[in-house]
Amino acid sequence: MNFYAVMAIYKFEMARTRRTLVQSIVAPVISTSLYFIVFGAAIGSRITEVGGVSYGAFIVPGLIMLNLLMHSISNASFAIYMPKFVGTVYEVLSAPVSTVEVVLGYVGAAATKSIILGLIILATATFFIPLRIEHPVIMLLFVFLTSITFSLLGFILGIWADNFEKLSIVPSLIVTPLVFLGGSFYSTDMLPPFWQSVTLFNPVLYLVSGLRWSFYEISEVNILVSLVSITAFMLLCFSIVLYMFKTGYKLRT
Amino acid sequence: MNAVTEPILSIQNLNKTFADGFQALKNINLEIQKGEIIALLGPNGAGKTTLISAICGIVQANSGTVTVAGYDIARDYRKTRSIIGLVPQELSTDSFETVWNTLVFSRGLFGKKANSAHIEKVLKALSLWDKKDNMLMTLSGGMKRRVLIAKALSHEPAVLFLDEPTAGVDVSLRKDMWKIVQELKNDGVTIILTTHYIEEAEEIADRVGVINAGEIILVEDKTELMSKLGKKQVSLDLCDPLATIPKSLAGYSLELSENKDQLTYTFDSLGDRTGITSLLDDLKAADIYFRDLNTIQSSLEDIFVNLVEESS
Ligand SMILES: Nc1ncnc2c1ncn2[C@@H]1O[C@H](COP(=O)(O)OP(=O)(O)OP(=O)(O)O)[C@@H](O)[C@H]1O
Ligand SMILES: [Mg+2]
Questions:
Q1: What does pTM read for this prediction?
Q2: Do A96 and B78 touch (CB under 8 A)?
Q3: Does a structural domain hold residue B197?
């Protein structure tokens, strides 16, 4: 194990965050506050309770999920796309590092940032609503697994993308709609039966549902199903990354 | 196998065809001894960078084997890559990183324990010490080139690839660079460099390899190469223009310049007799007088140009 290399990449990536502190931390805090003001206060005054919790509290897991997904993907995809774009990737490709070490460095850093972000959003939420978390350990486990999985997905995206458009297309055209349609800000019970069934094909539903269960013990799908799904997806993403490095896909010519 | 003569770098039957079907390396064979400085010359697109990239793990070869210090670059990539330092041709650096941090990063990436003293030494050797806290984007092109060299040296490689290290570097810095290369050689580092400046190869290389269109067309000891292929010429500025070369001088390889006032005699500098004395006698006999006489020795550049023209 080239431990020094893992640390070098990890530190490099974390330093990059420190340089963009406003973008990484302040922006999500502001947007989260806006969600609470708009959704929580404005809409919440009409929808009082969902499944026994206030609407403001109900959307907290969804908000956290939204941010984890978006930021994991963008952090990790940029982390590998930029070196490819600028040309500095030559150094990583010619270094004595295995795929696992590269992933630990880049994906580890991206996931770390997401986890910190998730906790910051959680803290922000407590300013707006009284929060209770029934299963903090499972909550953390979910945040952890989601951050790693979607950082892996972002990493795949960053390797695959050969222009900026492709880089932004997945988060904006796929992930955002899935999050909004995945019951982040409403319960699927509120939908007509047909759309309820359609929603079951949305993978984000399983994430939001699982995280929400860890907060309030209310969920659309069984918590175990959620845990198994996210773990399976994580393994799938990791296998794809391994395969990409093994074949040199878009990295080595 | 004898440990002393085992090459530090051995390339056997290396082939590379890119995805678009272009064959950039054609059955490359090359052995390099420890502590050697070898210069790879070749026109643009010859395959120099591709060859280096294949050895360093950036380009995947289609067939052939490469060993570094006896280790296979594919099977034992950890071992080989930790020995190799690479200075790429392209000036690609992170913009916001500082000089110091980027060296610390490189050293770590190559699996070496942090060592500020070593990094300080490298930065000072490359006259970058006063820039250590500068962000990379604030450096000039020549400084960035030196940062790339410093990054490669930060992890103490035993084999160093320099892909056009002096492109865009001013004359005094180029001389500094040659000095550094010489010092690295004295420390036992093996250096493979590519260059378009022939005088650079003449100045610092022990051996010269010429690549053209993906093939190594020659690898020779530099001094041997120059004396073997080196031709000498004597040019004579004539007092009176000459219409044609007289029959009595037909035995010499003479050339008359276009404006008919200069004769050039080409001879093999290694031959037992150069024929100059008899030529001068015969000139006098033919009533041809000259004002001035110059001898010209062909440089590596002439040799190189001839070789590439012949092979293509
Ligand atoms: N990724 C690629 N796909 C297709 N062809 C490529 C690729 N990279 C390089 N080539 C081609 O391979 C040939 C060799 O390129 P290479 O960069 O090795 O040349 P070079 O000898 O380093 O030239 P220069 O002196 O200009 O640096 C060129 O014809 C180039 O166009
Ligand atoms: Mg080149």
A1: 0.84
A2: yes
A3: yes
B2: pLDDT strictly greater than 60: no
Cβ contacts of residue B175 below 8 Å, gap of 6+? none
- Cross-strand bridge partners of residue B12: B65
Is B214's C-beta closer than 6 angstroms to any atom of ligand 1? no
What is the number of structural domains in chain B? Answer: 2
Phi and psi angles of residue B233, each rounded to the nearest 5 degrees, phi first:
-135, 150
Confidence band for B132, pLDDT divided at 50, 70 and 90: very high
Amino acid at A11: K
| A129, A56 Cβ separation under 8 angstroms | yes
Chain A interface, mutation test: which of B53, B90, B105, B109, most A Cβ atoms within 10 Å? B109
Residues B206 and B299 in one domain: no
**Same domain, residue pair B113 and B235:** no
- Of A122, A127, A118, give the one whose Cα is nearest residue A41: A127
Within chain A, which residues score under 50 in pLDDT? Answer: none
**Polymer length of chain A:** 253
B29 and B96 together in one domain? yes
Strands B190-194 and B37-41: parallel
Provide the 8-state DSSP code for B135: B
For B255-272, write each residue's pLDDT tens digit: 888 888 888 888 776 666
The ipTM value here is 0.88
DSSP code at position A190: G
Task: Look at strands B23-32 and B9-17 and give their pairing.
Answer: antiparallel
- Does any CB of chain A come closer than 8 Å to the CB of residue B77? yes
Cβ pair A253, B19 in contact under 8 A = yes
